[in-house]
TrEMBL record:
The active site is at E388. It holds the Pfam family Glyco_hydro_1. Keywords: Glycosidase, Hydrolase. Its EC number is 3.2.1.86. It is an enzyme of class 3 (hydrolase). This is 6-phospho-beta-glucosidase. One of its GO terms (molecular function) is 6-phospho-beta-glucosidase activity. Belongs to the glycosyl hydrolase 1 family. It comes from Paenibacillus silagei. InterPro entries: GH, GH_1_N_CS, Glyco_hydro_1, Glyco_hydro_1_AS.
């Protein structure tokens, strides 16, 4: 007997993209170079080999800064959403999307990051984009910083290690809040803010070459993270002041870990991983550095320099909701040597024999999403927003143009079922935005053929193709889900 799963009235069904993976137009209308424009597509690397995909050095950056093409830098070309957004939004309106999560490219507003006056052409682009969305009944959910920052701030200030960057970010936030206060009601400060500990350059503009030994890099990372925490709190303050009634949240990469066995050492290893994952929301929702992370800093010899008023800002200006990404779960062991490994979102781990794998080796675990939601809500008691969830896979275009992707439908359906279970458990959920609603450039590997979209884009890993958009079977399935407000 099947169960009809109806979601709460007003549930925000939607999709998600990021400026640096979709817009393209990297050198148009005064846009400056960002950290995302440095990302190369490295052929012949193994799936999930993120460390090599995202490796960055001074030599690589110098080459990238001098290269004026997009040949080896797929995020520079994206899928040309910058010029094609009316067409793409028409598809999304047809699908019934109530919201679209997207980001503002900081370098369109302040090309170098430290200018006194914003770039009007960049501001005007987002005016047109938001107007088009609202005209089609699609609510904008805007991320202020999604894996990109001005390269000028990296080269001249050391990225987020510099306290001055907090002031530049606050200026940027003040500008966009004032400009779009009548158009955007939902905001997110930093995309997957926890990622800075795994990907210092992508998240924080930190070039490890410039900081010496690993311990110095780690010190720089946590100092930069503190600056982002403060910047996030100040953005919350500004948003509430400038846009009364707006909601502004934080965002976490959900990295749920199970113990490999019931050995207490394995249970402790999983507990520590899960606790560390929640450190980032502890600061942004509870407003304090928890005791377990203070012990971690002491054990590591890490000292965080704080300015007067930092602790007060963190305590007073906390997030209105927690948004998060969830793709897969992980397994932890006190002794992992000899155990089979798999890849996953931004990191790898031990293989769970009870879970199937995607084509990219990511474990598929819908129940882990329910557990994540329960853990977050029971800890914080504030609304949750599932802003990234989806399946990266190869898609085949049939001779008649059809794209049959039952594997994606199965993935989305099984995860949406678990969101509904969490709601029945009493978890308050604002909405769900499937990643990415349209094919775009992969964050981790900068490839195109790892496809998440419900809308197909005709482009290959090397940028060849017509950019024609096509509906996949999942497009029609999700349209039905939205129309029925559930499964």
């Amino acid at each position: 007997m099947s169960t009809q799963r109806i979601f709460p009235d007003g549930f925000l069904w939607g999709g998600a993209i990021a400026a640096n993976q979709a817009e393209g137009a990297w050198n148009v209308d005064g846009k400056g170079l960002s950290t995302a424009d440095m990302a190369t597509y490295k052929r012949n690397l193994g799936k999930g080999d993120y460390k090599k995909h995202n490796a960055v050095s001074d030599e690589q950056l110098k080459k990238a800064m001098e290269d004026k093409s997009d040949q080896d830098y797929p995020k520079r070309r994206g899928i040309d959403f910058y010029h094609r957004y009316p067409e793409d939004l028409a598809y999304m309106q047809e699908m019934g999307l109530r919201t679209l999560r997207l980001s503002i490219a900081w370098t369109r507003i302040y090309p170098n990051g430290d200018e006194a006056v914003p770039n009007e052409a960049g501001l005007a682009f987002y005016d047109r984009l938001f107007d088009e969305m609202l005209g089609r009944g699609i609510e904008p959910l805007v991320t202020l910083s999604h894996y990109e920052m001005p390269m000028h701030l990296v080269n001249q200030y050391g990225g987020w290690t510099s306290r001055e960057v907090v002031d530049f970010f606050v200026r940027y936030c003040t500008t966009v809040f004032n400009r779009y206060k009548n158009k955007v009601k939902y905001w997110i400060t930093f995309n997957e803010i926890d990622g800075i500990v795994r990907h210092p350059f992508t998240n924080g503009g930190i070039v490890p070459d410039r900081f010496g030994e690993a311990e110095q890099v780690e010190q720089a990372v946590y100092q930069a993270l503190h600056h982002q925490f403060v910047a996030s709190a100040l953005a919350v303050k500004l948003c509430h002041e400038i846009i009364p009634g707006a909601q502004i949240g934080c965002m976490l990469t959900s990295l749920l870990h199970y113990p490999h066995t019931c050995n207490p050492q394995d249970v402790l290893a999983a507990h520590k991983n899960n606790e560390f994952n929640l450190f980032f929301t502890d600061v942004q929702v509870r407003g304090i550095y928890p005791g377990y992370i203070q012990r971690f800093f002491k054990d590591k010899g890490i000292e965080i320099a704080k300015a007067e008023g930092d602790d007060q800002a963190l305590r007073k200006h906390t997030a209105d909701f927690i948004s998060f990404s969830y793709y897969n779960s992980f397994v932890a062991s006190a002794e992992s040597e000899g155990l089979e490994k798999v890849s996953g979102n931004t990191m790898g781990g031990i293989k769970n024999p009870h879970l199937p794998l995607s084509e990219w080796g990511w474990q598929i675990d819908p129940i882990g999403l329910r557990l994540t939601m329960s853990n977050l809500y029971n800890r914080y008691q504030i609304p949750l927003y599932v802003v990234e969830n989806g399946l990266g896979a190869y898609d085949k275009v049939e001779e008649d143009g059809a794209i049959h992707d039952p594997y994606r439908i199965d993935y989305l359906r099984s995860h949406i079922e678990q969101i509904h279970e969490a709601i029945l458990d009493g978890v308050e959920v604002i909405g769900y935005t499937a990643w990415g609603i349209i094919d775009l450039i992969s964050y981790s590997s900068s490839e195109m053929e790892k496809r998440y979209g419900l809308i197909h884009v005709d482009q290959d890993n090397d940028g060849n193709g017509t950019l024609e958009r096509r509906r996949k079977d999942s497009f029609y399935w999700y349209k039905d889900v939205i129309r029925n407000n559930g499964l």
